[in-house]
Amino acid sequence: MKLTKTLVAVLIVVAGLYLGGCCGGSKEVIVPQSQPTTTLGQELQDLEEAYKKGAITKDEYEAAKKKILEQRTKEK
Asked: Which of 42, 43, 61 minimizes the C-alpha distance to 53?
């Protein structure tokens, strides 16, 4: 009886390792980009607010604004 329980436990462990390995691997997972959760206007307002509060410089503001506009026009 003890041998049967040990054998069952070993089989469960081996099956778990086998099945766990089938979904793993070194394949690169590519996640498609989803639609933005904020509107373009909201993003630009948030960016402007960060600039006005001094959190970012004028150059950072302009670069980020350009990047946002480029990304949003590619999506359409």
From this structure: 61
Residue 48 CB partners (closer than 8 Å, separation 6+):
61
Compute how many other C-beta atoms are within 10 angstroms of the C-beta atom of residue 47: 19
pTM: 0.51
Q: Could you tell me which of 39, 42, 47 has the C-alpha nearest to residue 66?
A: 47
Q: Which of 7-16, 22-31, 48-57, 65-74 has the highest mean pLDDT?
A: 48-57
Domain spans of the chain, in order of start: 37-76
Task: Count the helices and strands in the chain (H runs, E runs).
Answer: 3, 0
State pLDDT tens for residues 8-19: 666 676 666 666
